[in-house]
Write a structure and sequence with these properties.
The complex is a heterodimer of chains A (344) and B (542). Chain A is 68% helix and 4% strand. Chain A is built from 14 helices and 4 strands. The longest helix of chain A is centred in the first third of the chain and has 29 residues. In chain A, β2 and β3 form a beta hairpin. In chain A, α3 packs antiparallel against α13. Chain B has 542 residues and is of the alpha/beta class. Among the domains of chain B are: 163 residues, Rossmann fold, CATH 3.40.50.300; 210 residues, Rossmann fold (3-Layer(aba) Sandwich). In chain B, 36% of the residues lie in helices and 25% in strands. Chain B contains 20 helices and 24 strands. Chain B is globular. The chains are: A mainly alpha (344), B alpha/beta (542). At the A-B interface, α9 and α10 of A face α12, α13, α14 and β20 of B.
Chain lengths: 344, 542
């Protein structure tokens, strides 16, 4: 009994409730004509698509910059990488590598200025980051129209200038990562091995980063800035580095998402990634100032699991579309829950 | 104080935290108007006992306590501190619970504000009455005056030195009219000796007016001078309960640690001849430091290689500003020469790199990563500054933390300094004050400094730990010939360990004396009597 209590304490009630809910959905699925293999397929694919975006929260949380509500800054960098790669008409691995490379360069520049800005608003990072994310998206909305993109598959068909709302990558680098070493179990269940390997690689980089000298310094800055300062560490610089790192991860994450989804979603699309990514890492057990890779994995599985299973199972059960309602309750509820625990 | 006039009776109280017993069969009584001195080493269970008495939530959350407590003959079991407050128990905690942005008066009268009715309040009730600023100020002034200090009730808490904050905290408790029992947990730890004296007088006054006081302190001479009764806790058990009359400090110390304590002053083996007056390791000229509450105006001194140099003085006079300024934690200016080289100020990294190290007086705020394990706390500075515990991969491109070396280093210091912990992976937050201080020392030692600043190393830690800390410092000084500059507000402590002591007054060095000089000389310097005369003269010249 004691051990069970301890497990509950360390794992946390919210996670247990949601995990039980997810399992019950899997059990209930077949009774309402939802095939288990298809459900599994959806859960794994969506995990692969979103995990890196959730992972991108970690560096900023560790450095004390809070949850990255400004993730659109990184997403826009990813979009730039993706459309530039299309502009050069690069296909296959070369195409996606070019996208990564350009996205990383863009993310580094954006992240630098974003980090500088966050250093000026210490204590209110999360609110300011939200505004930065919003305003940056709308600024880029104008840019997407104005910038001289030429590739016919990315510009608007009826006038030949300005980018489309969704751009297909079908002919360029569709499923380049997803299909790497993929394993087909049944007709409806293909395991996207490539995305998992890629996520593992990214996780390893993050893990390793926090085991280097500079990573330890960033952890110290997040844990106690005064302590770090007394150890001769340039607190502002460490925070900027962590913000750049987060931004780069977000940029890479969105490209991985796009190659699996098959489309580059432009304009306001980045907005819809903010709350789900934040909520997932919190659901995984992260707090506003401590996060680990395990938090990312658990959170993404639970959050994406709920997201994929509720529409198929509950909708077939009661024939009303409540999936969106549940998604909003879970994601926003999780954020509220985590923020109320901030002052421990 | 008639017999049978018992206010508080504690009967067979025990408490365990998750199988870890901290209190066992605690019994004592307290009469009305009596001051009870509660002493014990860190971790002896004093704070837990007070938490039980005050109904703190932790106690309920961890399964309540055993035994009975009677207040005024009635059995009590408070579910929350609010209930305790209502039945007349006031408590001043070790950590401040004041609102920095509020004035002294607002803090003292928080939630018991003096109000006057207005139109809205007549309709909607008392909670909407206007705050009566004048009455507030008057009431706060009275509370402050009871304590015998002079603090303007309009000062913001954030602008006060720690000593004053402590007074405000106490003033808040005594302002409640019903207060019967006042618990003071280490109130004098952050006060200077003169401030502490004022507080003790105020306590006596309060006790005479009928309030009972439980006074927890590590300063045993205070216990002896003021308390009517003494309770010594050791490892959760009451060792002694008796009137203070006729008890000696050494005897209390022995009860506390359970073994006979050697005299505080042990022989310092170094003689004046051991030092070369020309071998100066640190020279400070015209140093100013802008540290709030501890402003340094114009400080000059020289430190010889291998000595332990003390810096003393009253709180708020600027002694703490000196190390903080030289280490670049607060804006500073002037000229500092270290090892014949000019030391750039306002650059912490550079200071650490050139061989300085600093143990901050703000242990929990600056000294520790409370949520990180001990080993990380110890190794961090050495790793960041001197690239120790680092494995270089890919030709130095990646600086990988060598966890094994960090662990070994932590284990070494845990053993050497006798840090009491479950393992080197325990979080610093869970350690007691004395052990936290040892971790801070280990952190500085791991840097292998040529000159070590130690600021208030024994603040708020008990006799046993104090001795260990001072011994560790002295041993380190002797073994490695490390020059140590120690800042402390306890003169006796400085005299027991230092070779020379500078007294800082009003941001300037009032004088530098040998540790063997008489207490009166130090006292004169501290009170700035020479200073006053000098200033008087210079004023006349102007």
């Amino acid at each position: 009994m004691n051990r069970i209590n301890q497990f509950i304490k360390s794992f946390g009630w919210p996670r247990i409730i949601i995990a039980l809910f997810l399992i019950s959905l899997f059990i209930a699925g077949p009774f309402f004509g939802v095939s288990t293999d298809m459900s599994l397929n959806d859960v794994f694919v969506r995990f692969g698509m979103n995990a890196i975006l959730v992972l991108s929260m970690v560096p900023m949380i560790q450095s004390g910059c809070g949850l990255n509500f400004g993730i659109p800054v990184g997403l826009v960098a990813g979009l730039i990488g993706a459309v530039m790669s299309l502009e050069f008409k690069l296909t296959g691995p070369a195409g996606i590598l070019a996208a990564f490379l350009i996205a990383i360069i863009a993310a580094t520049i954006f992240g630098y200025f974003y980090g500088k800005l966050l250093n000026r608003v210490k204590g209110d990072e999360m609110i300011i980051a939200t505004y930065v994310g919003f305003s940056f998206i709308f600024f880029m909305n104008m840019m997407w129209i104005v910038l001289p993109f030429k590739n016919p598959s990315s510009v608007q068909g009826f006038k030949g200038t300005g980018l489309r709302v969704t751009i297909s990558v079908q002919e360029y680098w569709y499923h380049i990562i997803s299909d790497f070493l993929k394993i087909k179990f049944t007709e409806h269940f293909t395991f996207p091995t490539g995305m998992f390997i890629f996520f593992a690689l990214m996780s390893f980089i993050v893990w390793a980063f926090f085991r280097t000298k500079i990573g330890a310094a960033i952890t110290a800055v997040g844990s106690n800035p005064e302590y770090a300062r007394a150890a001769g560490i340039d607190v502002d610089k460490m925070r900027v580095i962590s913000v750049i790192f987060s931004t780069i991860l977000a940029a890479i994450g969105i490209i991985v998402y796009q190659q699996s989804f098959g489309f580059i979603q432009m304009f306001n699309a980045p907005l819809s990634f903010v709350f789900p990514s934040v909520a997932a890492v919190l659901l995984g057990g992260a707090s506003v100032n401590k996060a680990s890779i395990a938090n990312v994995i658990i959170g993404t599985i639970l959050f994406q699991g709920i997201l994929t299973m509720t529409p198929s199972v509950i909708n077939s059960a009661i024939s009303i579309d409540v999936s969106e309602v549940i998604r909003i309750i879970v994601s926003n509820g999780m954020i509220v829950y985590a923020l109320t625990r901030k002052a421990r | 104080m008639s017999e049978g006039n018992i206010l508080l009776k504690v009967e067979n109280v025990g408490k365990q935290f998750e199988g870890n017993r901290v209190l066992k069969d605690v019994n004592f009584t307290l009469k009305k108007g009596e001051i009870l001195g509660l002493v014990g080493e860190n971790g002896a269970g004093k704070s837990t006992l007070m938490k039980i008495l005050f109904g703190m939530n932790v106690i309920q959350e961890t399964g309540g306590y055993e035994g009975n407590i009677y207040l005024d003959g009635e059995k009590i079991n408070f579910k929350s501190p609010l209930e305790a407050l209502n039945s007349g128990i006031g408590m001043v905690h070790q950590e401040f619970s004041l609102i920095p942005g509020f004035t002294a008066a607002e803090n003292i009268l928080l939630n018991v504000e003096k109000t006057k009715p207005n139109v809205i309040s007549k309709i909607f009730g008392k909670r909407l009455e206007t705050i009566d600023e004048k009455e507030m100020k008057k009431s706060a002034q009275i509370a402050i005056e009871t304590l015998g200090v002079d603090i303007d009730p309009d000062t913001l808490i954030s602008e006060m030195p720690v000593g004053h904050k402590q007074f405000i905290e106490i003033a808040r408790e005594i302002d409640r009219e019903k207060v019967k029992l006042l618990v003071l947990d280490e109130p004098t730890a952050v006060l200077t000796e003169s401030e502490a004296e004022i507080l003790l007088k105020a306590m006596r006054k309060l006790a005479d007016s009928g309030v009972s006081i439980i006074f927890i302190s590590h300063r045993l001479n205070e216990i002896i001078s003021i308390c009517d009764k003494l309770v010594v806790l050791r490892d959760g058990v009451v060792i002694v309960e008796r009137p203070t009359k006729g008890v000696e400090i050494r005897q209390i110390a022995e009860w506390m640690v359970g073994r006979s304590v050697e005299g505080e002053k042990s022989v310092h083996i170094k003689n004046e001849e051991d030092f070369d007056d020309k071998d100066i390791i640190l020279e400070v000229k015209n140093l100013w430091v802008d540290m709030p509450g501890e402003t340094v105006r114009d400080v000059n001194f020289k430190v010889r290689r291998g000595e332990i140099f003390g810096i003393g003085g009253l709180a708020g006079q600027g002694k703490l500003g000196i190390p903080n300024g030289i280490m670049g934690l607060f804006p500073s200016g002037g000229e500092v020469t270290f090892n014949d080289k000019n030391l750039a100020l306002n650059n912490t990294y550079n200071a650490l790199k050139s061989g300085l190290a600093f143990v901050s007086e703000d242990r929990r705020g600056v000294g520790l990563l409370l949520d990180e394990p001990i080993d990380m706390n110890i190794a961090f500075n050495a790793m960041q500054v001197h690239d120790k515990f680092i494995k270089k991969l890919l030709g130095g491109l990646i600086k990988w933390c060598d966890n094994k070396a960090i662990k070994e280093c932590a284990e070494k210091y845990i053993k050497e300094l006798d840090i009491k912990c479950t393992s080197e992976k325990q979080k610093a937050r869970q350690l007691s004050g004395g052990n936290q201080q040892k971790v801070c020392l280990a952190k500085a030692f791991a840097l292998e400094p040529t000159l070590l600043f130690v600021s208030e190393p024994t603040r708020g830690i008990d006799v046993g730990a104090k001795k260990l800390v001072l011994d560790a410092l002295r041993r380190y000084n002797e073994e490695n010939n490390t020059t140590i500059i120690m800042v402390s507000s306890e003169l006796e402590e400085l005299r027991s360990i230092c070779d020379r002591i500078a007294i800082v007054s009003e941001g300037k060095v009032a004088g530098i004396l040998s540790a063997k000089a008489s207490v009166t000389d130090f006292g004169l310097l501290m009170s700035g009597i020479d200073k006053l005369e000098e200033e008087g003269e210079s004023n006349e010249q102007n």
